[in-house]
Amino acid sequence: MSVLKRLWPALLGILSILGLWQVLVVVTGVPGYVLPSPLSVMQAFASHQQLLWHHAGITVIEIVAGLLIGCISGLGTALALARFHGLRRTLLPILLISQAVPLFALAPILMLWLGYGMTAKIVMATLIIYFPVASTCYDGLRQTPQGWLDLAQTLGADRRRRLLRIQLPAALPALASGMRMAASAAPIGAVIGEWVGSSQGLGYLMLDANARMQVDLMFAALLILVTFGVALYFTTDAVMRRLMPWHEDRIGATS
Amino acid sequence: MTSLGFSLSHARLAFSGQWLFDGLSATFAAGSWTGLLGRSGSGKSSLLRMIADLPIPDTHALTLTTSDQRPLAGRLAWMAQQDQLLPWRKVIDNVLLGPALRGRPTAAQRQRAMTLLDEVGLSDKAEQWPKTLSGGQRQRVALARTLFEDAPVVLMDEPFSAVDAITRLELHELAARLLAGRTVLLVTHDPLEALRLSDRILILSDQPASLSDFEVPGGQRPRALDAPDVQRMQSQLVARLHSAPHTNNEGST
Q1: In this model, does residue B252 exceed pLDDT 60?
Q2: Residue A106: how many CB atoms within 10 A of its CB?
Q3: Minimum Cα–Cα distance from A160: chain B residue
Q4: Range from A100-104, A179-183, A217-221, B199-203 carrying the lowest mean pLDDT
Q5: Secondary structure letter of residue B129 according to DSSP
Q6: pLDDT tier at B110, thresholds 50, 70, 90
Q7: Any chain A CB within 8 A of the CB of B56?
Q8: Which residues of chain A neighbour B52 with C-beta distances below 8 Å?
Q9: What is the mean predicted confidence (pLDDT) over A16-40?
């Protein structure tokens, strides 16, 4: 009830854009292979359901696997950098250089090494989020307020416990924005991978539909990607909020 | 806990190439409360951090000796201007922060933390998030956390400055009662606070700065607000702080 109340302005906005789109197509008489109307996209969606869900399943697995691996390894790298000072001088420059490599250019090489299966796409999705997650987490871990560090020192904390019980929780808000960003970037990695070379997945389906001038099917595939991207963003957000029950915007709601 | 006195000597601190103070020494008798005053930039907070061995960016040195000749490290508690409660730990877990940072708190330690929360009047808030507490309540939790450590030496850096005046007076009473018998060094900007709580008042002034004594009122701590001595000395102390050459670091002295 209240959810509907909060969502209706957004729904109204989306519906009016769709309405405008439909009117535009009808009025201008633009051919369906250039811009299909929302209604014909829905028709394509309904008639190709099985095909779409099959490819969507593949892409979703790639995205979720990439997201998990990227976030875990990014967080692990950040923790290691914060814990072991000696690592910084070795690892930070490598991280920076690796970030300068354009991932688009890397995709064909990954296909060459890992083949046309899912692995290459998972690696793409992982790579595209690994560095941003590692760097936001590391920044968060370094920006612990001095007062808390002073307290930890006078309380006799060792480095490991200080990192896990003070620096890590203090970095959670920064970490959360890193994760949210990763959630919206991971689909890009997977779809790029599918474009460069594959026989399955929504990216492949879109490329194939494009070649066959099935633009309505392309839009239907895009619709799934967008819906999943939004769902992934909100899921990540919900998980991060659950991890931070003390956070300001939660307190007011629960007490 | 047996009380522990300590003294410092050869304390020196540089600020942008100049000695803010050099060759300072002072003795803090076991179980006594010392109020340390001085204008902003006099280096009093830095001196406190030096005693606690906390990082400060400027060149500094200090020799510490304790009344039992053993190191002070590990036997001091620190209270800062902000309560420094961790927002992700419930009130009771903030009191238990020390044991949690050194290992895993035991059931007995939890029990003791509850007792301490009861002493500061917050046992009903034990399972709440710090965010739900008022400034005065938060500072009381910080006091309970300090008490948990049972350290013979307590260093306080303007610990009551972030709360309103009435709450501050209440916290004075509570702190004086609960921290009785400990050697307390209290850095403060508030002359009244120093006069109510100190056995001895030290003023850090001049450049390079030196420590000078200021007479304290008679009577038991915490002294009543309306005691004639306290009122009279407050204006004297303000005048003394005011006349002290400003030790600002911008130049003109």
Answers
A1: no
A2: 18
A3: B101
A4: A100-104
A5: -
A6: very high
A7: no
A8: 150, 153-154
A9: 91
| Mean pLDDT, range B129-158, rounded to an integer | 93
C-alpha to C-alpha distance for A121 and B240, rounded to whole angstroms: 74
Best probe of the A interface among B101, B139, B145, by most A CBs < 10 A, is B101
Determine the Cα–Cα distance for residues A230 and A254; give it in Å rounded to an integer.
26
Q: In angstroms, rounded to a whole number, what is the distance separating the alpha carbons of residues A141 and A144? A: 6
pLDDT of residue B249 exceeding 50, the answer is: no
- What is the spatial distance between Cα B167 and Cα B147, in angstroms, rounded to a whole number? 19
Q: Do A21 and A42 meet the contact criterion of CB atoms below 8 Å apart?
A: no
Dist. CA A99–CA A122, nearest whole Å: 17
Structure tokens at B187: 């850095």
What's the gap in Å between the CA of B129 and the closest CA on chain A? 6
| Beta-bridge mates of residue B154 | B77, B184
CB A191 within 8 A of CB A197: no
> Between chains, do A153 and B88 touch, taking CB under 8 Å as contact?
no
Measured between beta carbons, the chain A residues lying within 8 angstroms of B87 are 246-247
Per the structure block, which two tokens stand in for A109?
């090489």
Segment B49-77 mean pLDDT: 89
The residue-averaged pLDDT of A71-75 equals 94
Task: Tokens for A26, please give them.
Answer: 């009808």
Query: Which of A193-202, A224-233, B213-222 has the weakest average pLDDT?
Result: B213-222
Q: Which two tokens stand for residue B196?
A: 């109510």
> Which CA distances in Å does B97 have to A141, A162, B92, B147, B220?
19, 11, 9, 12, 32
B84 touches chain A (CB under 8 A): yes
Q: Residue A141 is encoded by which pair of tokens?
A: 């871990």
Q: Which stretches of A101-145 are DSSP H helices?
A: 103-114, 118-142
- Give per-residue pLDDT as tens, B169-205: 888 989 999 998 899 999 998 888 999 999 999 998 8
In a mutagenesis test of the B interface, which of A148, A150, A154, A175 is the best target, namely the one with the most B β-carbons within 10 Å?
A154
B52 touches chain A (CB under 8 A): yes
Residue of B nearest to A151 (CA): B78
| Cβ count near A149 (within 10 Å) | 18
Average pLDDT of span A193-212: 91
Q: Which residue has the tokens 């979703």?
A: A60
The contact set of A with B (CB < 8 A) is 147-148, 150-158, 161-162, 165-166, 169-170, 172, 244-248, 251, 255
Distance between CA atoms of residues B244 and B235, nearest Å: 14
Please determine, for the modelled complex, whether the ipTM score is greater than 0.90. no
Greatest extent of chain A over all pairs of C-alpha atoms, in Å = 75
**Residue B49's Cα: distance from chain center in Å?**
11
Output the average pLDDT for chain A: 89
